[in-house]
Structures are given as structure tokens and as C-alpha cells.
Design goal:
The complex is a heterodimer. Chain A is α/β, with parallel strands linked by helices. Chain A has a single domain, classed as D-Maltodextrin-Binding Protein, domain 2. Chain A is built from five helices and five strands. Chain A is globular, with a radius of gyration of 14 Å. Chain B contains 16 helices and 18 strands. The chains are: A alpha/beta, B alpha+beta.
């Protein structure tokens, strides 16, 4: 819990700098290079990140990860919604337990580490700075 | 029910109201049906739109529930929808046909046309994730419609009652009451006194006023004809009394005959004239007119007595007059009868006793035609008789008559010798002998001086005349005593002409007998001569 709060504060602090720094770039959805997933449709991406699909096309349980620094841009690009809407969406589902929100990771390094270490993890990065050890399955234009 | 029918039949206001109410009710029912139908339509639409609104309200939750296939969330949505009383059943189905959630409020409720709503993914607007089927509660809708119908029906009923009351009041006030008042006044009106009907106030210029005017005009006519009738009746009574007075008291007999010639009425004078008992009831025992006059003689026209009183059609159409004689001798009465038609088949007769006049006229005529000295006919009488004979000859031309002229021989000498008084006696003497010799129907006249004429009727031959003349001359041979110791024998010359043998003209016969008389004188007097055309010419 402690870590989550810290992450949230950090992401909130960094939003403005990240947005201003990476303005103009697209967002790329990335997976572990060995995951075996070559490509995702936009719909598959929505279903996975919004909790509808729990499994990847490969059949493994999906592990979506929200990158706090890019979260606002990502959801705007993916479902054209702001964070308040996304938060209220998940808030409705908290008690039903049917679906759970993606894991929240504050730093992009942690995201990078999680994705490269976990075969089923998927997240997003600025398309301009995609590391080589990540596989881009979908690029969302802004 | 019969009482209601009677009321409707006798009350104008009620009848009018009933008819208007009937029409209004009919229209109202049509209107109500239409209104209920429209109301039902609009309620249906209203419910549909309400359901749509409800669905809009729960859409976001439904989207999420459907998106995630979250049964709890979907059930939440379905329960929320079912909590509305307009929803009877809800079913949330995903695109692949599985039912996420559902429910039914009233299991027995009938289903109406359901509303199907597509739910799209909250993140991908074009992607349908599931379908919500909502069935509206028809019972509830029906109830709403029924409520609306009750309201409209109630309003209509109130309106109906209002209209009915208004019509009753208006008709009663503006039509029935004036008419009732009029009828009441009309029944109390003494129309024969000329009293007029008054129009009710405020109705003077409308139809009721016109009705009153018409009734008044009728009353006027009635009064006029009544008074006219009364006047005529009075006049008739006076006329009747006048006639009765005349009828009863006049000297002339007045009577009426019907189509069968029976006397229907007769006044006292008539009864006296014809010797009828005064108390005979002619109405009950009519007397035939012919029976009263039978045996009488008529001197009307030259008609037979038998026909005189056959009151034929000619008589029935125009006025006729007779004079008839009743009784014989001194008791004989002459009555003048005038019959004039009264109406078809009825005759009125007037009978006058003309005996006195008749007798006076007869006496005067007799006197005018009589020689005062001898009591025989005079020249005037002879001329009259000759004229009668002429008429008689026209009727019976085969009958012959003798015209005998007698003239005294030397009458002037007798007069001069013995005086006129003896002359007159001599004339009387000869006249008496002649009157004794001839029959009733023959005629003897002294034409003047010593000239006598005798008409013998029905002498077909000369030999019929001769015995009379022989007897005459024999009678003359008896001397006539002038005074004590003096007697004379009168001699007469006689000429005879035969009317029908010698001539057909009476005047001519008269002349011929004159000529024959002179021939007798020439033959030595105191003899007779027949007219001989050849020798005497």
C-alpha cells in the first residue's frame, strides 16, 4: 500500500513533465519479446486493459500494467477517456470483484523491468523510446 | 316506464331535452371511444419513451456490466429497471445469446410490445455488447388508460347533465311556459264577446306572438260570423212572424204542395175556402190537392178539367193561374189559384175567392149582351155568339147551322096605330114565342127595332128548320089583344141561310139570310124563304 501511494504521488508529480517532454509522439503497447504475441488489435488491447479479457490471445493470463507517467495519454489514445472517467469505471467494479484494474507502476524503469521479466505482462511506452528488448504489438496514434 | 313515456309525450321541455341528451350522449360515446383510443395510443407511446429514458439512465452501468459480462452488475441493472411499476419484465442478453440477467415483476402479467435496446461497449461506440429487452406492464398501461377514460367519461357525464338541465330550464322558460300560459288564457277566453288574446311579454315579435296574432284573427272572424249569424237569425224570426201573421190572417188562401201534389200546409183562409176542417193536421195526414178540387169546373185555359190539375213539369217550373168553381148553383164559389214554384218539387199556391167579382163581371156581361125590352140577346150578344160559332166551326167544320132572320111586316104601322107601348108588347110577344120554340143551345136575339135573329145549332138540312118555322107561324096566328075589343095578328117575314151549306162564313150567312128575308117579303110576307144563290143573285 505504501508503495502504491508513493507511486501515485510520483506519477502525479511527473505527469506535466512527461506530457510536455513527449508531446507529439505516439504510444506503443509493448509485451515481452518472448511472449509469443506478434500483434494485438485495438479491440483486444481495449478488452485486456479494461478488464474484459483476462487472458492473452496465447491463452496465458494477461498481466496489464499501467505506467503512471503515460496513463492519461494512453487512455486518451486508447478509449478517448480522461483519467477521472477511467477511475470511476474501475471504482464501480471494485466491489463486484469480477474484474480488476491493471497493476499501477510509477516509474518507466519498473515497467521496463516487469515487462522484460514477465512473459505475460504488457504495458505501454512512448513510441519514440521503445527499448529493444520489448515487442510492440500495437501503436496508438494520438 | 309508461309514466315516463306519458311525461315525454306530454312535456315539450322533457321531450326536447331527451332528444338533445340522446344526441349528445351518442356524440359523447363516439367522442369517448375516440378519446380512449387516442389516449391509449399516447399512453403506450409515453410508456415507451419512459422506458427509453429509464434505459438511458441505466445505460452506463449496463454498458459496463455487459462489457465485462458481469452478472451481478447486470442483475443490478435489471432489478433497478424492474423497480419501476411500468416495467413488467427485463432480460439482458449478450450478443452471443447468453442471458446475463433477467426478471419479471408480475409473473401473471400479460406482455405488451417489448422495448429492445442495444447496449454498446463503453469504449468502442460501434460495438454492440448486449441487448436489453424490457416489457412494459400492460396492466399498468391499461389502468392509466382506464383512469383517463373515467376522467373523460365523468367530464362528459357532467357536461351531459349540465346541458340537460340547461335545455330543460331554457325550453321550460322560453317555450313551454308561454305556451302553457297561452293555452290557459285561451281556455278562459270568452271569444264570442270579441275578447282578444294577449301575447306573453317578450314573445310579441316571435313565433308565439305570431300564433297569438293568428288566434286573434281567427277570433275576429268567428265573432264577425257569429254576429252576422245572429243578425240573420233575428231577421229570419221577424220575417217568419210577419209571414205567420199574414199567413194566419190574410183573406187569401195560402198553401204548399209537395212533389206528390199533397197539401203540406194551408192557412185558415184556405181551409175556409175549400171547406177543410181547421184542425186537420196536414203534416201527418196530407190531403191530395186534386181531391179538394174534384168535381169543380175550370175556366182557365181551354184545357180539359182532367188535365187542369195534373201539376206537370211545366207548372212546376213557372207560375200558372186558374180560376175554378166549387159547388153548384147559389153555393158555387169561384176561386182563383196561382201556383208558383218554391223550390225543387215544392209549389206555393195562393187561392182567392173571386166569386163576387166573377158574379159582378158575369152580370155586367150578361147585361151588355141582353136586350132590355125582350130579355133576349142584343146585337152585341149576337155578335159574340156569332164569333163563338165561328170558332166552333173551325173545330167542327162538318156541322151545319141555320141563321134565321125575322122581320115584322108593317111594324111601323102597328106602332103608329096602336102606340109604341103596344109595339113593345108585340115585340115581347114574338120574342117569347121564339124563346119557347128554340132549344137551350140555340140563340135568339133582337138586333134592333123589329128585327130578330135566331141561331139554330146542329141543323144539317133545311127540313130540320121547317117544323120550327111552321110551329112559329102557327103560334103567330093567335091574335094579340091590343085592348078590349081590338085584336091584331102579327105577321113576320123570315129568311134562312144555312151556315155550312150556303156559306162557311157566319157573317156571310147573316147577309144571305137577310137577302132571303127580303125575298120572303117580296113573296107576300108572313112566309119564309131559304137563301137561293141563283135566283136571288
Amino acid at each position: 500500500m505504501n508503495r502504491v501511494r508513493r507511486l501515485l504521488i510520483a506519477s502525479t508529480l511527473s505527469i506535466t513533465t512527461v506530457v510536455s517532454a513527449s508531446a507529439g509522439a505516439d504510444i506503443a503497447i509493448v509485451v515481452n519479446a518472448g511472449s509469443g504475441i506478434d500483434h494485438l488489435t485495438r479491440s483486444e488491447a481495449v478488452n485486456i486493459f479494461m478488464g474484459r479479457y483476462r487472458k492473452l490471445p496465447t491463452g496465458n493470463v494477461a498481466l496489464p500494467i499501467d505506467s503512471s507517467s503515460l496513463k492519461a495519454r494512453f487512455y486518451r489514445a486508447l478509449v478517448n477517456k480522461d483519467l477521472a472517467e477511467i477511475n470511476s469505471y474501475w471504482a464501480r467494479l471494485v466491489f463486484s470483484g469480477e474484474a480488476s484494474p491493471p497493476q499501477q507502476i510509477a516509474s518507466s524503469e519498473d515497467v521496463h523491468q516487469l515487462v522484460t521479466q514477465n512473459m505475460n505482462a504488457l504495458s505501454y511506452v512512448d513510441s519514440a523510446h521503445v527499448p529493444d528488448d520489448m515487442h510492440v504489438v500495437l501503436t496508438l496514434g494520438e | 316506464m309508461p309514466r315516463l313515456l306519458l311525461l315525454l309525450h306530454t312535456r315539450l321541455a322533457l321531450r326536447t331535452t331527451a332528444i338533445i341528451l340522446l344526441i349528445v350522449t351518442l356524440l359523447g360515446v363516439i367522442f369517448l371511444v375516440l378519446a380512449v383510443y387516442l389516449r391509449a395510443e399516447s399512453v403506450q407511446e409515453e410508456q415507451q419513451s419512459r422506458i427509453q429514458e429509464l434505459l438511458t439512465t441505466v445505460e452506463r452501468t449496463a454498458q459496463i456490466g455487459c462489457f465485462l459480462g458481469d452478472r451481478h452488475l447486470a442483475q443490478e441493472v435489471a432489478d433497478g429497471l424492474l423497480s419501476n411499476n411500468i416495467v413488467s419484465a427485463v432480460s439482458i442478453d449478450t450478443s452471443d445469446g447468453t442471458t446475463l440477467a433477467g426478471g419479471r415483476a408480475d409473473p401473471a402479467g400479460e406482455s405488451a410490445s417489448s422495448v429492445i435496446h442495444d447496449v454498446y461497449s463503453p469504449f468502442e461506440p460501434g460495438t454492440s455488447v448486449c441487448e436489453i429487452t424490457v416489457e412494459p406492464d400492460q396492466a399498468y398501461i391499461d389502468e392509466l388508460v382506464a383512469q383517463a377514460s373515467y376522467f373523460i367519461g365523468g367530464a362528459l357525464l357532467l357536461q351531459l347533465i349540465g346541458i340537460g338541465l340547461c335545455v330543460v330550464v331554457v325550453v321550460a322558460k322560453f317555450v313551454t311556459r308561454p305556451i302553457t300560459g297561452l293555452s290557459h288564457r285561451l281556455s278562459e277566453l270568452e271569444a264570442e264577446t270579441g275578447q282578444q288574446l294577449q301575447a306573453p311579454k317578450g314573445n310579441r315579435d316571435d313565433e308565439i306572438g305570431q300564433l297569438v296574432l293568428s288566434v286573434n284573427a281567427m277570433i275576429d272572424n268567428l265573432v264577425q260570423s257569429l254576429s252576422e249569424e245572429r243578425r240573420l237569425r233575428l231577421e229570419r224570426e221577424i220575417e217568419e212572424r210577419r209571414y205567420r201573421a199574414i199567413f194566419d190572417n190574410v183573406e187569401a188562401g195560402i198553401f204548399e204542395l209537395d212533389g206528390d201534389d199533397l197539401i203540406r200546409s194551408a192557412n185558415p183562409a184556405f181551409r175556409r175556402l175549400f171547406g177543410m176542417p181547421g184542425e186537420t193536421d196536414l203534416e201527418r195526414h196530407p190531403v191530395a190537392f186534386a181531391s179538394l178540387v174534384s168535381g169543380s169546373e175550370s175556366i182557365s185555359d181551354s184545357k180539359d178539367m182532367a188535365q187542369a190539375f195534373v201539376i206537370d213539369n211545366v207548372v212546376r217550373e213557372q207560375e200558372r193561374q186558374w180560376e175554378i168553381a166549387l159547388g153548384d148553383g147559389d153555393q158555387q164559389r169561384w176561386i182563383s189559384l196561382i201556383l208558383s214554384p218554391l223550390e225543387t218539387g215544392r209549389l206555393q199556391g195562393v187561392a182567392h175567392d173571386v166569386t163576387e167579382r166573377k158574379r159582378a163581371a158575369d152580370a155586367a156581361e150578361q147585361m151588355a149582351m141582353t136586350d132590355p125590352l125582350t130579355g133576349l140577346g142584343n146585337r152585341r150578344g149576337f155578335d159574340h155568339r156569332l164569333a163563338v160559332m165561328a170558332r166552333h166551326r173551325r173545330l167542327y167544320p162538318e156541322r151545319c147551322h141555320a141563321v134565321i132572320t125575322l122581320d115584322f111586316d108593317h111594324f111601323k104601322q102597328i106602332n103608329d096605330t096602336y102606340g109604341h107601348q103596344f109595339g113593345d108588347r108585340a115585340l115581347n110577344h114574338v120574342g117569347a114565342i121564339l124563346a119557347d120554340l128554340v132549344r137551350q143551345r140555340d140563340y135568339v136575339a133582337r138586333l134592333g127595332g123589329d128585327e130578330f135573329v135566331v141561331l139554330l145549332e146542329g141543323c144539317s138540312e133545311r127540313c130540320d128548320v121547317e117544323p120550327i118555322l111552321t110551329r112559329f107561324l102557327e103560334s103567330l096566328r093567335t091574335p094579340l089583344k091590343v085592348r078590349e075589343g081590338t085584336e091584331i095578328v102579327i105577321s113576320v117575314s123570315i129568311g134562312i141561310a144555312m151556315l155550312g151549306l150556303d156559306t162557311d162564313d157566319p157573317q156571310q150567312a147573316m147577309r144571305f139570310s137577310d137577302i132571303a128575308m127580303y125575298a120572303a117579303k117580296r113573296a107576300g110576307r108572313s112566309t119564309w124563304r131559304f137563301y137561293e144563290p141563283v135566283s136571288m143573285a
